[in-house]
């Protein structure tokens, strides 16, 4: 690899940014990113939707108290026992009392359940993403920067992990493990299989960075590997990493929902979107709103983070570096 | 070329061995006790010990793993005494549930999953690549934006939601399609396709959306290459520039993706199969899990891993045939 003579352009790699005291993106880049995100109608909507969902998840207990129902409260008055437990009233019992209607048979409040479901779904998705990003970035940097044997071992490990039939394996692990905290287990299981994707992106970036002038300069000044990695390499790959992180989230939300849909996710009565949809399948003709409400939340969450991630990738990683 | 092939096959064997080992160890570290499950609720400690011995669970894990591996290649005898089962090559053990060989169960279900996977794959390749390439060639236009918005939205819909909506619209409401029930291709090809059309569509829509996005960005990248400009400058007709020069090189990343996806689907689309009640490998896996039928679960996991790895090798070989640089 030769030392490039063309000065770096584009927001994705700005070596001056790598000065001391800027562990992540420099201020100017933050401002540009924000301005471009906010300037585009699509990404602005996605940003607002994502922020709202996070807010809903954070304030779930508060919101459900505002609605007047806890997610596990049964309301026998809201359902019609003569109609097989279908909700009273049109649209699945939507009204002033139950804002998004009720569950058939039990009469549990859908608003409270969907809001608490957001908490579970987003918590698992974010925690799993954090595991993936930390592991993937560390492995990718190590493989790309040190090269040689470290690279060989880590790359083999990436290939191996990618050859795992991940969904089947996740389902198997989730259903065999019994007396474990479901949320923690699920986070770990989902997180374990995600890291090679981001590791490959980071590895490629680190590989091209390790012979750049400013890295050589830092090395000549006597900086150790740890300092070079955290002060020179990491800031320069933070753009793609941030974009890729956002793009990971929708996949994590979908995976969590899929596992819960199959009945191996969080256990009832803890609500989760996938589990609610699975229960609603039996009522999709008689009480379609029960099916529609959690589906819409899931759809909006996945869509918002996908659009946001796409926009961030276009801004922060314009040349690609796609997995 | 032969050396390359040999190296790849060795790598595949290594990967499969590692996956087998990891799967085996994880299932043995976890708390569920298959002997207790097989023995039933009213089981005396003596009987349990006997069952454990019969199933080989009293052996150390490495020994069990060794026996399992030997069994795959050479077959083995399960248990001892008058009730011993002869398990021929390739022995993946017997189902705890119905005492049938796991291999036979898998081979019984595989045609169903393969029908589902290949049909859906044809559909999503046509839809996805068509939409992606069309959008790329009209980059920034109204058609491009419409197609991409549709693709993002479709990719965000979970497959079970799409499946239920299609089921409602095409089966319940209009009666255009029958409720999916698997009919073997060899029995009645028309009814095979008619029954699988709904699951194919449900599965294909999701993948088509992802492939449209992927192939669009890949195509745009390729069409910006200098050699495309050269081809145009030479005066080649637009069609041949797009198809021969653009599409051919733009499809390589898509091909990689396709290998992985098809490989993973061959061993069962668990969600789609369980929604439509299609008796494929995914369904077998799901049912086995409900009954803690470990040999079947292990068998499906290995089969799935085999397909993913095999698909990778096939794709790599295709590359090697097309591009001599890969071989070295």
List strands and helices in order, with pairings:
The complex is a heterodimer of chains A (323) and B (328).
Chain A: H1 27-39, H2 41-58, H3 60-67, E1 79-80, E2 86-87, H4 110-146, H5 148-163, H6 166-176, H7 182-192, H8 195-209, H9 213-220, H10 225-261, H11 273-280, H12 288-316
Antiparallel strand pairs in A: 1-2
Helix pairs in contact in A: 2-4, 2-12, 3-4, 4-5, 4-7, 4-8, 4-10, 5-8, 8-10, 9-10, 10-11, 10-12, 11-12
Chain B: H1 2-29, H2 34-39, H3 45-55, H4 61-74, E1 76-78, E2 85-87, H5 102-137, H6 142-156, H7 159-173, H8 189-223, H9 226-233, H10 238-266, H11 270-276, H12 281-290, H13 294-322
Antiparallel strand pairs in B: 1-2
Helix pairs in contact in B: 1-13, 5-6, 5-8, 5-10, 5-13, 6-8, 7-8, 7-11, 8-10, 9-10, 10-13, 11-12, 12-13
Organism (chain A): Streptomyces violaceoruber
Protein name (chain A): Peptide ABC transporter permease
Transmembrane segments (chain A): 45-64, 120-145, 157-177, 183-202, 289-312
